[in-house]
Amino acid sequence: MEYIHFEGLLIGITTFLIIGLFHPMVVKAEYYWGTKCWWVFLLWGIGGVIASLFVCNIHLSAVCGVFAFSSFWTIKELFEQKGRVRKGWFPKNPKRKYPE
Questions:
Q1: Is residue 5 a part of any domain in this protein?
Q2: Containing structural domain, residue 16
Q3: Which of 48, 50, 75, 100 could form an SS bridge with 67, CB 3.0 to 4.6 Å?
Q4: Tally of domains in the chain
Q5: What is the pTM of this model?
Q6: What confidence tens digit (pLDDT) does each residue in 33-58 have?
Q7: Residue 2 lies in a domain
């Protein structure tokens, strides 16, 4: 045990923070824009995939990959959040019209 490698731990912490950032982002995005903003997360995901392919540093590349697939997962969560709002689990935005 000559060296202690912190890279995996740092990637894990970064993954935790990215996922923690995207959770409230889903709630706020659905509240203000509904599911119309799903394409933003798609573009972020595609950008993250491209970045992960071209970044030379393996750890930064891994973080870009985590960001990319968290963005893709957010698209799914955005549409599921719509259902959670419909069920009354989350508040509706009074300034938006909801199809009943």
A1: no
A2: 10-85
A3: 48
A4: 1
A5: 0.88
A6: 999 999 999 999 999 999 999 999 99
A7: no
Q: At what angle do helices 58-86 and 7-33 cross, to 10 degrees?
A: 30
User: What's the CA gap between 53 and 8, in Å, rounded?
Assistant: 19
Of 32, 37, 44, nearest in space to 71 by CA: 44
Q: How many CB atoms lie within 10 A of CB 69?
A: 15
Residue 74 in contact with residue 25, Cβ under 8 Å?
Answer: yes
Structure tokens at 58: 């393996």
- 53: tokens are 């392919």
pLDDT tens profile 3-29: 888 888 999 999 999 999 999 999 999
Query: Is 65 inside a domain boundary?
Result: yes
Query: What is the secondary structure of 11-48 as a DSSP string?
Result: HHHHHHHHHHHHHHHHHHHHHHHGGGGHHHHHHHHHHH
